[in-house]
Amino acid sequence: MFNLIVSNNYPRYEKYAKYEKGKKLTLYERIGVFFQNTRRIIKIANKPSRKDYFLVFKICAIGILVLGVLSYVIQLIWTFVNFVLKIGAI
């Protein structure tokens, strides 16, 4: 149904594996593999630009604004319903 286009530029992780796939690793080997993978990820990771930070800020601000307006509208509706039905009136 969905045709995802995957770039072939990404490295194949199997070539980085120094251990057989079905082999049970010792604790020392697992720690070593963890640090190798961590080092590889940090090496290819990059810091987001100012434009990316501003885009995230705008998305969060719009989300907070939408939630605030939605909660205000719900509050108004419930206030009106309580007034009409005289629920909680003394």
What does this structure look like?
By secondary structure, the protein is mainly alpha-helical. The chain has a domain at 49-90. Helices cover 60% and strands 0% of the residues. It is built from two helices and no strands. The protein has helices at residues 27-44, 50-85. The longest helix is centred in the C-terminal third of the chain and has 36 residues, at 50-85. The protein is elongated, with a radius of gyration of 27 Å. The model has no long low-confidence stretch (mean pLDDT 83).
Question: Which characteristics define this entry?
Answer:
90 residues, 2 helices, 0% strand
Question: How are the SSEs placed, and which strands pair?
Answer:
Blueprint: H1 27-44, H2 50-85
Q: What characterizes the major β-sheet?
A: none
Query: Strand fraction band?
Result: under 5%
pLDDT < 50 stretches: none
Number of helices in the DSSP assignment: 2
Q: Radius of gyration over alpha carbons? A: 27 Å
Q: Give average pLDDT, whole number.
A: 83
How helical, in percent, are the residues?
55-70%
Backbone structural class: mainly alpha
Report how far apart the termini are: 59 Å
The helix/strand series, from N terminus to C terminus, equals HH
Shape, principal axes of CA atoms: elongated
